[in-house]
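Researcher: Next sequence.
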Amino acid sequence: MKIKKGDNVIVIAGKDKGKTGTIEQTFPKAEQVLVEGVNVKTRHQKNKRTRSVGQIIVKSAPIHVSNVALMEGKKAVRVGYAIETQGDTKTKVRVARPSGKKI
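Model: Next structure:
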């Protein structure tokens, strides 16, 4: 997955198309990400003991990684990789495809 925790992303497909948020968690095996404030679900929870109160829990659900794109400024960009060499060491760096800038 080319998108990591802490990236600012925009939703490009689905019911929340156009919303932006930060990635809180990634699920690489399921190819899903949890974006703050996107795909919000409500769950009605019954009281567990007598004299306790039931409640409505609101939380974000994961969405597929193909439905989000990394943001550069206010535009959605694709992510690529480049190899940087510094002396004898080579490091793999994420790069924005249109501009070629390091992420």
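Model: DSSP finds no helices and ten strands in the chain. The chain has a mean pLDDT of 93.
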